[in-house]
Amino acid sequence: MRRAGSLLAVVLFLAGCGGGNTGSTRITSDTLSIYTGLPLRGVRGDEGRAVLRGEKLALDDAGGHVGNLSIGLIALDDTDTKTGVWAPGQVAANAHEAAQNPTAIAYIGDLDSGASAVSVPITNEIGVLQVSPLSSYTGLTQPADKGEPTKYYPSGKRTFARLVPTGSVEAAAMAEWMKAMGVTKVALVYDGLQEGLGQGGELERALHAAHVDVVDVLRLDPHDGPADVGGDARDLVKAPAPAVVYAGASTPSALSLFRAVHDREPGEDLFATNGVAGAALAAGLQSAERQVYVTSPLLPIGRRQAPARAMSARYRSLFGAPAPPAAVYGYEAMRTVLAAIRRAGAEGNDRQKVIDAYFATSAANSVLGPYSIEASGDTTSTAYGAFRVQNGRLVFDRVLHPAVG
Prior knowledge:
With 405 residues, this protein is α/β, with parallel strands linked by helices. The chain has eleven helices and 15 strands. It has helices at residues 45-61, 88-100, 113-126, 167-180, 201-209, 230-238, 251-264, 279-284, 306-319, 327-343, 351-358, and strands at residues 31-38, 65-66, 69-77, 104-109, 129-132, 160-162, 185-190, 213-219, 243-247, 269-272, 292-296, 362-363, 371-372, 384-390, 393-400. Helix 10 (327-343) crosses helix 11 (351-358).
């Protein structure tokens, strides 16, 4: 039996070690590198570290090998040292490091959709598989804005897949939840960011499809501070709607707006999307929390199927702490990459063969439940979580399975 502590060291393989690419997509070394680009500090640091630990756990379960191929994991931080959030320059540097390493077989990351929009074209151009645990922006794989998704694939081939449902799934889940709660009219606020449906249109269309009338639409500048939302809040409470939904990724903007609306109209229901669904939002709502409803793909592990609970038990024994919900996405990302290498058989060190094998992923009994990867790179899973806020914490309410397609 392997010692648990063996997985705590991430094996590093420097660029150039063990042979290179000779013009084909085959790696001549029997030592392969899997890169991962994640936020390992700052506002999403806890989430990023949980994903990384999930990856390490899956690699440990495989013994660090697939057949006669040795697999090393190289973890890179995609955040800025000053701001603690992902930085385009750092994301690009991480992706270039992977692209320049002749032993790189896959790249797991990034978490934020905006970060993936930076890294995907870089890994795509060199023909390296990229799998994001949590980047949900629809335009990465399907038409959403001008030039999307084509602009992310300079090679002309699809090399990117994700394990989280797309933004269109979240939009449908939010709309169906509102309808089930009897909400018939809503004021929509969005912040223009890619994360959390922040570009507005996708959620607005889903609300219309669910026969929820959007009676007011407001775009906030995500850089506005608390003093800038007072007028917006007054306008929103004047709108003939009993609910406000915030779509986007700026938690400070969401908090300022929700508190301001609640101060003026305490009975107004307040909905928020995945881009701000975290501890900072829940902890900062104050008296507004009892009116807040949030969607997130990070279901409690106890609400998932048996494989997730078994993974959670191993996580606790190895790391001495309960597995956060994000850990299952890191685990599944690594597990499926290793499975694709295995399915490629004798060509498991061929980048294109591994990409082809990954796009044939079909999991009947995984930590995320049953799903498969479509030709677009999207998952067929539609499970989304609905949460309320109590005592400064997100509290699970129900699983949403929206009808999409």
